Amino acid sequence: MANYYSDHPELDFHLHHPLMKRVVDLKERNYVEKDKYDDAPVDYNDAIENYKRLLEITGDLAANLIEPNSESVDLEGPHLENGRMIYASKTFENLKATRQAGLWGLSMPRRYGGLNIPNTTFSMLSEVISAADAGFQNVWSLQSCIDTLYEFGSEEQRQKYIPRICAGETMSMDLTEPDAGSDLQRVMLKATQDADGTWRLNGVKRFITNGDSDIHLVLARSEEGTKDGRGLSMFIYDKRDGGVTVRHIENKLGIHGSPTCELVYKNAKCELCGERKLGLIKYVMALMNGARLGIAAQSVGVEQESYNEGLAYAKERAQFGQKIINFPAVYDMLATMKAKLDAGRSLLYQTARYVDIYKALEDIQREGTKLSADERQELKKYKRLADAFTPLAKGMNSEYANQNAYDAISIHGGSGFIMEYKSQRLYRDARIFSIYEGTTQLQVVAAIRYVTNGTYLNIIREMLEHPVCDCFQSLKDRVEKMVSEYEQVLEEVKAEGNQEKLDFVARHLYEITADIIMCLLIMDDASRAPELFKKSAYVYVNFAAAEVAKHVDFIRNADAANLAYYRQAEAEEAENA
């Protein structure tokens, strides 16, 4: 019987990464709960076995229920009845099965009914579910909004809401509005207080994923007369209290199982989460970073499934007297898809491990335990790494998901354009990944300061110090040449002191950075498990070398005359319109 976890040994490889020992030891506080809770591990190996059992259960559900339901969900989608969103019928089946399997509230501490699993393991579960149905992954994975409530809410709010999520209630984050998409400073949903101090919400939210959920985290303007981010606070809205209706469900290109709603708030009762005025400045940033890691995992799931579909079709389809997998044009495509998948997955889980370490140390500190000097330095180090890697993991994997889905259709030829084949749905689903929770362009904006201040270059130099097996020395030599070119072209751009040019070539610098980091990650993986990653290491370094050369050439030729041409062309387009 198929299993979306055990069928892919690459996941088990990342579960046993050397850094996982530190992740688990911190998450489990050196296993102090082993005598208090039956499901608490007694040591590191026991914890890993617990994670594997959870992944096996999820892999089975994904392969044998969620994936078989996916086509029906895609065709039916959610619908609107009397101001309420109603899921597709098979989505209800998926929800019931995941609740029965205990797959809700997973990251929460055991004292609230959770399983206390780290982000890395949650990301693996998310990847597995996404491979089965990316739309349902959205509904299921939004439970991770509870991490923000746990981090910034009061103890009373934790006790009130966290057990409900652990029991399988759903969540959403209500951020965007008709006039506030990526520019959340323009949010105008109004939060006011009654005479008794009760908070009320009035206004409209748009493009809200899983918008008719049970518990919402809502960004609203609490400070009258303000127009920027300093006037925004975070609120908790409980569907049981009423006051919010669904006005419209978007008819989308893909992820049909995930309802995207327009919500109308009419005097809706809510609770302030954390402190006033920190909604955008602090809480949404934490919420969005978690969401971006979730989209990276969602993207890797679709990268995997696209590769699976392309490979299976190429093995079966015969043309000109042989299977098309034997044609160089096809096996080149498949090898590159697999290399992008392996490199992107490595970037995802490296990022997740960094997040796990600093989040666990922050949680220990929040509970009142004073960190040692070494632990404070560790927190600072891994927070810096997580902040730098998150925009790379989200941006690059969302782009790779689109590319792999595109190539899967190409391998299918004309059949890929026919709705009966899954590859078209993967393509439609993937398109949103590089748009929501921050477009790829916004990931570039988030990352570029780490490019220009040398953070990424220092990380790359540290990674270059890691030994590789002798068989990969030639690959390492090629990567070192890429790093040298990267350093040179970066210095050239900085020396010009032209902000417009820096902004113009930022995407190219971002992709060079990510390409090199993923080369180093996949070589490290291949050195430890050549049977899994040797082929992908060779293919990815070859692919990345060509990409880096292309970007370097573009940057060096983006002189003042070229910039003027681009500006002029856009001006003429605007004038003609």
User: Mean pLDDT, rounded to whole units?
Assistant: 96
Largest sheet: 7 strands, mixed
| Number of E strands | 11
CATH top level class name of the largest domain: Mainly Alpha
- Share in helix: 55-70%
CATH topology-level fold name of the largest domain:
Butyryl-CoA Dehydrogenase, subunit A, domain 3
End-to-end distance = 57 Å
Number of helices: 18
Q: What integer value in Å does the Rg equal? A: 24 Å
TL;DR?
Helix content is 60%, strand content 11%. The protein is an alpha+beta fold. Helix 5 (119-132) crosses helix 9 (279-316), helix 9 runs antiparallel to helix 10 and helix 10 (328-366) packs across helix 17 (530-557).
What descriptors fit this protein?
single chain, globular, 3 domains, Butyryl-CoA Dehydrogenase, subunit A, domain 2, Four Helix Bundle (Hemerythrin (Met), subunit A), 577 residues, Butyryl-CoA Dehydrogenase, subunit A, domain 3, two-stranded antiparallel sheet, 7-stranded mixed beta sheet, alpha+beta
